[in-house]
Amino acid sequence: MKISYAFRRSVFYPYQDARGPGNELPPKEVRRAYLQKVRAAGFEGIEVGIASARGGEAEVKELRRELEGEGVPCAALRGGGGFASPRVAAQNKERVLDGIRAAAWIGSGLLNMTVGTPPRDPHGSGRDVGGRLPQGSSRLASEADFEVTARHLREVAAVAADLGVDISIEMHQHSIADNSWSCLHLLELVDRPNVGVNPDLGNLYWNYEVPEETNEACIVALASRAKYWHCKQLLRLQIPELEHSYYLKVPLPDGEIDYRFAISAMVEANYGGFLAVEGCRDGDQLYRDGLSVEYCRQILRELGQ
Asked: Residue 75's pLDDT is what?
C-alpha cells in the first residue's frame, strides 16, 4: 500500500493562495520546491484536482512528466459530481468525462469523484457538516435518485474502461453515497468492475451530528470494494442544545478515528491502491501531514507491509 498526498493547503512561500481553494497545485514558479518537500515528507504520489489538469492532452502530459520527475506521480485525478438533480446532471457528466480523459493522460488511471448535488430544501442545513439532516443525503434520497445516478455512472464507466481508467465513488457528505449501505447499494446498481468506492471515514464521521454507523463497521463493509482511500482525522465536539457537532482536522495519530483498525481492515481485504492522506488546512501542513505519513508507515510495518 503506497501513501499519497491529498493536500488541502497549497500555501508555500512565497505563494500565499489568498483566494484559492487550497486543494489545487501551487503555481509553476514554486511547484518544484513544493513537490520536493512533499516527496521528502514521505509521500509516494499526489492527488491532482481537475482544475490543475486543465488544458489539452499535451499540457496534461507535461504536468505528468513534472510530477513523475519529482518522484510524486499522480495517484488520482479528482473531479466530478452527481446526476440526481437535472439542474446539474449534464454539466457534471461533462466534468466527469473530462476527468476520465485527464486521468488517462496524467497516468493515474483513476478518477475519484463524488455524487453530490445541490440542496433541494432551501430551509435545510445547506452545505455544512455535523447537522441534524444534511441536504443531499441518502436519508433523503429516493430509489429513483440511485437509479438515475447508476445509469449515468454505467455510461461514463464504459468510456473510462476503454481508456483503462477506474472510477472511485467517494463516500461523502451531502451525497446519496454517504455511508456503507448507500455506497454498496449504488455499486450494486452500477455493477461495473472499474467502478468502486473511496471509503473516506472522515466524511462518514462528520456528516451528521451523531454518525450513522461506527467507523469500524463501515470500513469492514467497504474495504473489499475500494479503488482509492482518503484518510483524514477529526476531533468532534457535540452541542446537543444546538443539535450540531463541530469538527477540527488534526494529523492522523491525534483524532478519534481508529486508523490502526481501518488500515488493518484494508490490508485484510488485500487493498493494493493508494492510502491518500487528506491533509490539514491550517498551519505548517507539510510538517503536520508528515506526522500522518510516519504513523501510517508504522502501522503498515507492524502488519508486515
From this structure: 98
